[in-house]
Amino acid sequence: MAMASVLLLLLISAKVTPSSSSSSSSLSDKILQLPGQPHVGFQQFSGYVTVDDEKDKSLFYYFVEAEQDPASKPLVLWLNGGPGCSSLGVGAFSENGPFRPNGKVLVRNEYGWNREANMLYLETPIGVGFSYSTHSSSYVAVDDKTTARDNLVFLQRWYDKFPGYRNRDLFITGESYAGHYIPQLAKLMIEINKEQKLFNLKGIALGNPVLEFATDLNSRAEYFWSHGLISDSTYRMFTSVCNYSRYVSEYYRDSVSPACSRVMSQVSRETSRFVDKYDVTLDVCIPSVLSQSKVISPQQVSEKIDVCVEDKTVNYLNRKDVQKALHARLVGVTSWAVCSNILDYELLDLEKPTISIVGSLIREGIPVLVYSGDQDSVIPLTGSRNLVRRLAKELGLNTTVPYRVWFEGKQVGGWTQVYGNILSFATIRGASHEAPFSQPERSLMLFKSFLENKPLPEAF
């Protein structure tokens, strides 16, 4: 609470500017045109927000206004995971942003989420992508608490740049380790709002999220076995001799036991490095941007990521003309990377559950959607579904939408269940860990229904 009090003083002291769509400081962040970009009718902005004046900590953002009538659309903050992977490179340019790099040009993403909302992508924490500090110590021992604090200050100071969005409906979405980032940020918002209403938070959506270390990671064994990736005997070893949460815990303490080493070697042999664990049906030639879950999937020494296609996003964002157009700069690194090479994150924060924080948000009346790409074995749908069902029971929420299919484009889009009209679980059929990358049309339908607080379509 002491930290929240300090933040409260910091935020309340910020001068409230008159309401308008943007301020003079945001105009300098306006993107005139990205290199190779097709003509569009919406505005784009990018640049920096300083979150710590003393240490000169600045977070980089990319903001895309809605395609049509942005004044009537909500604001959505998108966060990618890792921890340490870029919301610009993964979220914006590979998943649900308006463009995707293709050689020297950008092509329109027909299913970009700015069709439904004003999208704000944040490269967080410090040291990710174009975000930087002039003090190298800022990259050391970064943890969930520091990240939540920096993200909170970012958003308040971003509102100073764009005062017209200050009272706009706000949703926070993201995936993977954002299952830690988002609930902790939302919790701080709720605490601040009890003193002064600063954030008009309307809901959070968490895609293939890390919410409870053991449940999420240990559901991997059943997923592997049920999809034919491991044998019966290896499944028994994977659940009795050394489960996955034990292995990860030992790995990040530099104390992998011989028993766990043997089990993981066997699992690796059978699943094969030629199968993408983020989408078990996808061929192995995938962009390296799909490696954002590096922390929750530590690799065996002998295992290497097989990247057999050109990473167009990395090439595009390392162009000097692109960086100039984005008002971006490299500080402390020689090139932009999808996942940070300089960030020293407190990896044991992975073991701290955030599902209880999600429960506290629901008690405060904040709607929550947990969704899963059903081809992801890194954070499988089975673990997420069990966690949501368990949380609903703890909160005394009855089923308001029984488990059923939902549709998009005259096909089954996935399955869903809703509890108490405030806690929802949904799968996206055929989707990977990065659902909007692999199933963009179905992901957009899920997103649209979430924003409008409407049931997913029961028919086509």
Automatic annotation (TrEMBL):
The keyword Disulfide bond applies. This is Carboxypeptidase. GO terms for biological process: proteolysis. Belongs to the peptidase S10 family. PROSITE patterns: CARBOXYPEPT_SER_HIS, CARBOXYPEPT_SER_SER. One of its GO terms (molecular function) is serine-type carboxypeptidase activity. Probable carboxypeptidase. GO terms for cellular component: extracellular region; vacuole. Residues 1-21 form the signal peptide. InterPro entries: AB_hydrolase_fold (IPR029058), Peptidase_S10 (IPR001563), Ser_caboxypep_his_AS (IPR033124), Ser_caboxypep_ser_AS (IPR018202). It is found in: Secreted. Its EC number is 3.4.16.-. It comes from the Eukaryota. Keywords: Carboxypeptidase, Disulfide bond, Glycoprotein, Hydrolase, Protease, Secreted, Signal. It comes from Rubroshorea leprosula. It is an enzyme of class 3 (hydrolase).
